[in-house]
Write a structure and sequence with these properties.
There is one protein chain. The protein has one domain. The protein is built from 15 helices and no strands.
Length: 316
Amino acid sequence: MPFSEPSQFGDLLYAFLGILFEGAPYIVLGTIISGFIDAYLPSNAIDRFLPKNRIAAIFMSGLLGAVFPVCECAIVPVIRRLVQKGLPVSCAITYMLSAPIVNPIVAISTYSAFAGNDALFMTMSRIGIAYLVTVFFGIVIDRFSTRSILKDKLLSKISKSPSQAPKTDDGKTNISEEKPDKLLIALRSSSRDFLDVGMYFIIGVMITALYRTQIDQGIVDRFGESDLVGIPSMMILAFVLSLCSTSDAFIAAQMLSFSSAAKLSFLIFGPMMDVKLVFMYGAVFKPKFVILMALSLFVAIAVICSVWGNLPVPGT
């Protein structure tokens, strides 16, 4: 893109680096935690933690991200392993959709991104709406047959056997061999997650920096004037940018012409459904279910955010 003045490039670089350095620490923290959870958390641990009653288990699954925080980039392979070990599909999907948002790392990053600008309202609204949407979706999914949701290849691998850790000749877990391997797996998983997430984040930061410095704000403001246009526009943007939930709040906070409702829709829909997730979901779920899930989440989040975002903000 040509710049008419050197100062335009300087403004772009300054905006790019500012947003990048704000969000990068949360990506590092999130990928490290997800890597160690991937390596050290037994596949059947969450299943044992859940109540026997299915509805209660779904409600609990929506809160598991607070205990086992995993970003959306790592959650799909984790869910695939948990389902293979016998975790109910409705609970697995509830956890899959909620964990990238309903977790302490995202709460801190969201609050930091909106500091001085209704930070508490935006943070609690994001977590609360995400929890309600995912629990409701999980309850609905519980009425579907597993065969209509999961791919046939995964269905054939479903087992309720315990974790298949390496065993010694006497049948005990080989701890001495397992620990070094797990540490290496954790570090490798963290590195892969960081590189993958970092690439999408940098692309998102660049687009946002261009938006802030090079695009006529009068044109952009037209999309933010009405929630009828602003909310779906922000949700589509979240879908395309494919940002990590630990850093997307720093992008949304820069969209000054959009309402709180539109920003919330961006922050909630993106971690549940974006370009990269569609391909990842395709490895676990049948295509028809992925389409149904995307459309259902889009409509539900748009409607709820439209109502919620126009409520009076406490303290104002």
